[in-house]
Amino acid sequence: MRSDAKTFEEYLDSLPNERRQAIEQVREVISRNLPEGYEEAMDWGMIAYRVPLETHTNTYNKRPLMYAALASHKNHMAVYLTSDWSAPGETDRFREAYLATGKKLDMGKSCVRFTHLDDLPSTSLERPSLHRGRRLHRRRRSGPLKR
């Protein structure tokens, strides 16, 4: 369910109480672990964490590069970790670390879906691979993204 909210407050206010609380808590964990130089913004109909265009101007779609995102959909909530899904081996490392917590993993092509906050181990968002974006940020500053 794509949101037309323009602000974080508008987005959070549109959610049912339980979902709002879950999204706020996951947002806090992501914000606390967000590498320096990235920004939080309402984009793609969700709360997005991205590389600003001022930092990396040469993108394939002329939009900021998404690093991670957080959304509430009709039947679930989701954390999009595009930084993990874009690097060889990172998805497997993420999957192993997540399953080691004993939680059930509901993983899509670029997201982890959850219906309740208890379904999502916060340690999966605090691990070192989330900080991998610092290296990506420095590498991508100087030129176009290699595909």
Keywords:
147 residues; alpha+beta; 5-stranded antiparallel beta sheet; 7 helices; globular
Task: Provide a compact summary of the structure.
This protein is α+β, with helices and mostly antiparallel strands and 147 residues long. Helix content is 37%, strand content 18%.
Walk me through this protein's architecture.
The chain is an alpha+beta fold. Helices cover 37% and strands 18% of the residues. A five-stranded antiparallel β-sheet has the order 1-2-3-4-5, covered by helices on one side. Strand 1 (39-43) and strand 2 form a beta hairpin. Mean pLDDT is 82; it is low at 131-147.
Task: Give the termini separation.
Answer: 29 Å
What would you call the structural class? alpha+beta
Count every beta strand, where a strand is a DSSP E run of 2 or more residues. Answer: 5
Give the spatial strand order of the biggest sheet. 1-2-3-4-5
Instruction: Describe the global form.
Output: globular
The pLDDT mean sits at 82
Q: Largest sheet at a glance? A: 5 strands, antiparallel
What is the succession of H and E elements? HHEEEEHHEHHH
Q: Which stretches are poorly predicted, pLDDT < 50 over at least 5 residues? A: 131-147
Topology:
Elements: H1 8-13, H2 17-33, E1 39-43, E2 46-51, E3 65-72, E4 77-80, H3 82-85, H4 90-99, E5 111-114, H5 123-126, H6 128-131, H7 133-141
Antiparallel strand pairs: 1-2, 2-3, 3-4, 4-5
